[in-house]
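Hi F.,

I've been meaning to write this up properly since the lab meeting, where we talked about keeping a consistent format for the predictions we share between groups. The idea is simple: the sequence comes first, exactly as it goes in, then the structure tokens exactly as they come out, then a line or two of notes. No screenshots and no reformatting. I'm using this chain as the first example so we have something concrete to point to.
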Amino acid sequence: MDKILFNKTKVIATVGPASNTKEMLKKLIVAGVDVFRLNFSHGTHEDHSKVVKLIRELNTELGTHISILQDLQGPKIRLNDVEEGCIINDGDKLVITTKEVLGNSQTVSTTYQRLPNDVAPGESILIDDGKIELKVDSVKGIEVCTTVVHGGSLKSKKGINLPHSNVSAPSLTPKDLEDLKFGIEYDVDWIALSFVRDPLDIIDLKMKIEAAGKDIRVVAKIEKPEAVKKIDAIIDATDAIMVARGDLGVEMDMEDVPMIQKQIIKKCNAAATPVIVATQMLESMIENARPTRAEANDVANSVIDGADTVMLSAETAAGKFPLLAVQSMNKIIRSVESNYENIYYKYNSPNPESPDFYPTSLVQSSVRLSADTKAHVIAGMTWSGFTAWKLSAHRPKANIFIFTGNKKLLTMVNLIWGVRGYYFEGNDTTDEAIAKVETILKQEGHLKAGDAYITMASMPIKKKYRTNMLKINVTE
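Output, unedited:
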């Protein structure tokens, strides 16, 4: 088997019909996928359970720790079925009803029963990622009467966006609650919540996970203007952020999205909150074997801005070239990481009022020391993952390895910039543990004689305190 290539910026690949076989999943792992995303807007629980089992089989066979991200659909508003070849033109009148009917150029129906309550005359309704725009004229019972502003081809199951309306649907729909049971049963690593509007949406999901007795981290997908306005509170509430530019670019003015993306990444980096950039990153590779130059620039700029992770959606789920898409993305990442020094060493002053002030300060000191000594590795012994999160946030050029007896943490941290995990347990003294860490890193080819490396741990090790010890060694 080819050697697996690891970058510091992680790659998420969405699994679908183009990639759901064991053979293709294995190829994608070797090409550098760190996280597989299961999109619960599509597929059955049976489909997803097969993929989960295949990923875990491959982790065992390859010695990898590929992470599993469950992406809940959320209150996604869609059309019901529409006649084939249905076209609407500018100036036409179109009725949207909540009664299920086969749609045509005069009347279509929607899955969203609250639509007549949530829209008002003068507001816009966008269909199919904004390709079609309607203006609401009036609401009559279960019918919303509109005028077509920009027409086009109406297709079954296409998404509906309400950029100027307050959507009253709960963040977790009945379908999401059923899908959440799946994620909890299969103990996925991360769950992404779609269309987050308020930090309470995240807190509600976390409470449900906690009540089930699971350690599953939550990703808040930012795709609504309400979320952008409350971004600081949402970052505080969540474990990670996804800048989901597809719906965000429809719900808000498209030209504002690039700056919003940069601002969110900056805030997440400062808060040590992992941030994912998603949607249309290599969109042309759904059909073509090479990305456009603009797409290559988009991926590169996301890495330069400080994204922990970049995501492929339809490119790997349904595209013609899933393997080439992953390889292309990793080549772009590798080029930036090899040639642009400014992505490294991002220091943020620890808060003296924080209960974690001392361990946070120590972690930052280790990264500064790694820069001064040109250390090849920073190795942290951790149970909670605190050390991994904090080390990653400071973006050291040294490779970050965490050693833990918490098996769940090994796959969880695979989403975080720069971090790789090794399973490690024992009741050794600190000196014995450090010696074992060095042996493992030498055996794996991460250290050679004469390399400086830094080790972080808590003393005494058995107590599993926050990091309180730092040591620098030179490999013998």
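Notes:
The CA atoms of residues 34 and 66 lie 5 Å apart.
The first helix runs from residue 22 to 31.

If this format works for you, I'll send the rest the same way.

G.
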